[in-house]
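--- STAGE predict ---
source: upstream dedup step, 1 unique chain passed
mode: sequence only
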Amino acid sequence: MRRRRVQILVALVLTALWGAGIYAAHANGRLRFLDRLEATLTDWRTQVRGVQRPPDLVTIVAIDDTVVKRGGSYPLPRADLARVVDTIVQFKPKVIGIDLLLVDRSAAIGDATLANTLATGPMVLAAAAIFPSASETVAPDSEGPLAVLPQAERFLQPLPAFADHAEVGIVNVATGQSGSPLSVPMLFRTRDKVELSFPLRVAARALDEPLTVAPDHLRLGERVVPTDSDFALPITYYGPRRTIRTVSAQSIFDGTLDRAAIENRIVVIGASVAGGGDFYPTPFDSLMPGVEVVSTAITQLVAGDGIVRDRRVRIVDALTAILLPVLLVGLLAWRRSALGIMAATAIMIAWAGLNLFTFTHGVWLNAATTLAAAVPPVLVFAGVQLWAGSRRTQYLAAKSRSLAQFQAPAVQEWLARDPDFLSKPIRQDAAVVFLDLSGFTGLSERSDPDELRNLLKAFHALIDRTAADCGGMITGFLGDGAMILFGLPRPMPDDAARALKCAIDLHRGVERWIASLPPPIAGQLGFKIGAHYGEIVASRLGESHQHLTATGDTVNVASRLMEVAAQNDARLALSDTLLDAADFEGTPDGILSGPLLARIRGRSAVVTVWFWRDPDGPGQVATTAETIV
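--- STAGE serialize ---
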């Protein structure tokens, strides 16, 4: 037991170390395959949550296929863009965000017109971060809270003529392994400059609140904006494209733009032209325009209804990655049966339900890392348990086979069901058969030990087969004899009948066996059998090594009957009590002679004895004789 406890403790410690290692490796940018799994699980959880109605704060003015078909070109000429912006400004929005990179010069008149238009209202223009490789990097020698920011090689800024009349924000989004944007970085930097993201610029201008950068979050005035470890805003999508209010820029050229869609709202101008390249896969839509991804981030910044994946959530993720697998392994160790598996399964289902519940209520607990931390140790431990269980089953089966050599099958099965069987002595009726070889002691003095061993082995095998066939229990081999009990593990109505049959079968079997031995040995051997029925005391004897046995007057009489048989030139002596209990009236192939009144030493009552013989045996004994043994 102590060894098993140590093994379980080691398993729990290794499981905890595995979970901590998985979480730490993933947090440090390794195990990237978990990001793909997490992205897939996030898409699934978003779909389970379903489409939600977003707060009606943002209107997207889309430069879509209709605009391109009517205008005949893309990108939209700067003069046309100026007309779009000017019309929107007249409807008095809170702020206008232009999700278009105005980095190249075009016709001078168009650029000048657009620059003048940008000066007429609150504007935020899009810029782009250029990274030296496909992935955003962090300088290893950086220090302070801003060290975790994605470090760009440079920023692709709007033309100065435009940037002089507006604020600028970086429009890059962070895509997961599946290509779906799961978060939007709020801050970017180069070696000497830090820039705000486009959604953060727009939200700060719309709320008209100062921005504060804290070590693990952002603050817009008094409003805390929970961010991930790298100041990224986790986002969750409201639904498919156009879930956020979207109008075509063509409505401006047609003069049909609804003032209510613009007034006192955040307006984001962006492209949704097919083939324009600015599209991303999301859980609800395989191709969502980038402007709607950005607008989703703006909405969640302003409304404060985004999903939380901040430092506190990361701590919960770390604890879950360590404690959940420890709990599962502990349950499997606590109950190695189906109960332990059911309990572990219930815990996993409860965790999955809790994870989904928190996600749908705005808290993003990591699922992939927890699965990677929990599943391998659980599978390994369960496999080891199955292997150990198989080994234990084989060991117990071997012990059972070994035990079967020393206990009758019925008693063995009874002990398996009731380990306390006969822990307290019981009184009951039973039949007892004694068998003993005659002349064996003298033969032992003149024979080789190996020959004697083989002789006894064959003799014991004969007794064992006969007793088992009749349903008797051999309580012990007494060297050249044996005691067979009928009545354990529980008394049966035919105990006496089966004992009588066993005694007769032993008589015939031993007689044939002796006849088959070499004449020098067979001439020295004989046997005697005594059988009686009555009350016994069944109990266990011994302390560390116990055996089942029976004691009492019935056992003593059965043993003495062997001597009565030998003194009367018979081999099988049966008590009248046994014959009555067995309802025995003789057999066609045997001779029953008697009765003989026998006195047993130390016993005042007389025992009525009958002798059973084969037809070819010696003649009957006198029925009126009296013998004292």
